Amino acid sequence: MNNMITSKARGSVLMLSLWCMCLLTMFAAYLGYNVRQKLMLVKRIEERSKLRFAAEAGVKKAISIVKAQEQKTYNALNDDLSANDAFKDIMVGDCVVSICYEYKDDETGALALCYGIADEERKINVKTASPVVLERFFRITLESDYAQSQALAASIIDWQDEDSGMSIPLGSAEDSYYRNLRFPYEAKDSGMEILDELLLVKGIDNKTFFCIKDYLTVYGGGKININTASKNVLMALGLDEDIADKIILFRNGKDRIAATPDDNVFESNSSILPKLSQFSRLDNSQLTHLSRVVDEYIATASDNFMIRSVARLNNGKNTMTTICVVDRKGNVLHWQES
Ligand SMILES: [Ca+2]
Ligand SMILES: [Ca+2]
Fold it and tell me: Above 80 in pLDDT, residue 109?
C-alpha cells in the first residue's frame, strides 16, 4: 500500500516538474520574442536617426552652396546649383546622400534625374499669377478647352482672394460651393502656404494635381527665370510656341541637351532680345511681343530654391527624404521629412 502511494506521489511530482519545465520554456520563448522585437525596434530607431542626420547634413551642404551664390546675377540649368556632381552620392557616416530632382527635357520629353537644386522661379506662383496666365497654363498643360481652364484659374483666384464673390459668373467656387460638399469646408480666402492646398480647390483632383504640380509654386515674387522655365511655363506667360522653342533651343546649346556645359545663358533681361535675335530670326512683331513679356514677367536670376536630400542606408533598403525650401540668403522657408 505504502509503495503504491509513494509511486503515485513520484508520478505527480514528475508531472508537476514536466508542467513547470513546459511553462518555463514557454516563458523563455515569450521573453526571447519580446527582446528580439525590442532589439529590432531599437535598430530601426537608430537607423532612422542616422538617415535623418545624413539627410539634414545634405541640406546644410546645399544651403552653403546657395549662400555662396547669393551675389550671382543669373541662375541657369547648368550652373553649380542646378547641375553639380558634387551633390551625388555624398558619404555621411554609414549613409549615402544625394541632392537631386527630376527634370523633364522639353526637346526630348525625357525625364532625367539631375543632381543639384531646383529653383522655384522656373515655376508659376499660384499666389501672384493673373487669371490670364493661369488659364493659359491649364489650357496648355492639361490640353483643356477655354471654359475648363478659365474655371480652374478662377477657382484658384477665388480660393485665395479675401471676398466671397465669384470672379467669373459660372465655373468658379467660393464658400457656398465648398460648404455643400460631403465633407464641408470653406474657401481659404488668403494665399496658399503649401502647393498641396490645390487639392482642396474645385476641379483639382489627384490626377490633375499630378500633371500640374511640377510647374507651380507658392514661393517667390512671381517673376519667371527665363534660363530655367519649361516651355509650357514660357507659353503661359503669353509667348507663342515659336519663340518658346527658340528660347529652349538657345539654352540647350550645340548638343541640344539641357543642363550640359555647352548651354547658353541669358545673363540679364537686357541681353535677352539681342542674344535671341542673334541666335534665330525674330520678326518685328515677335520682338515687340517678347519685349513686353520680358518687362512684365521675366527675370534671369532666382531667389528661392528647393533642396531634395535623399539619404540611403543598407544599399538603399532604408531611405529618408528631406525637402527644404530656402531663399537666396539661406533662410529656411519650408521643411518636410518623409
Ligand atoms: Ca475668396
Ligand atoms: Ca547643352
Answer: no
Cα(160) to ligand 1 centroid in Å equals 5
The rounded Å distance from CA 255 to ligand 2 centre is 5
Average pLDDT, the chain: 93
User: Phi and psi (nearest 5°) for 306?
Assistant: -100, 120
Look at residue 17 and tell me whether its pLDDT is greater than 90: no
**Domain of residue 254, CATH code:** 1.10.40.60
Q: Which ligand is nearest to the CA of 263?
A: 2
Centre of ligand 1 to C-alpha 183, Å, is: 19
Ligand nearest to the CA of 258: 2
Specify whether 320 is located in the same domain as 263: no
Instruction: Name the domain count of the chain.
Output: 2
pLDDT above 70: residue 266: yes
Written as one string, the DSSP assignment of 80-106 is: TTTS-GGGSSEEETTEEEEEEEEEE-T
Amino acid found at 192 = M
Start-to-end C-alpha separation, the chain: 77
Ligand nearest to the CA of 107: 2
The confidence score (pLDDT) of residue 3 equals: 64
CA–centroid distance, 263 to ligand 2, in Å, is 4
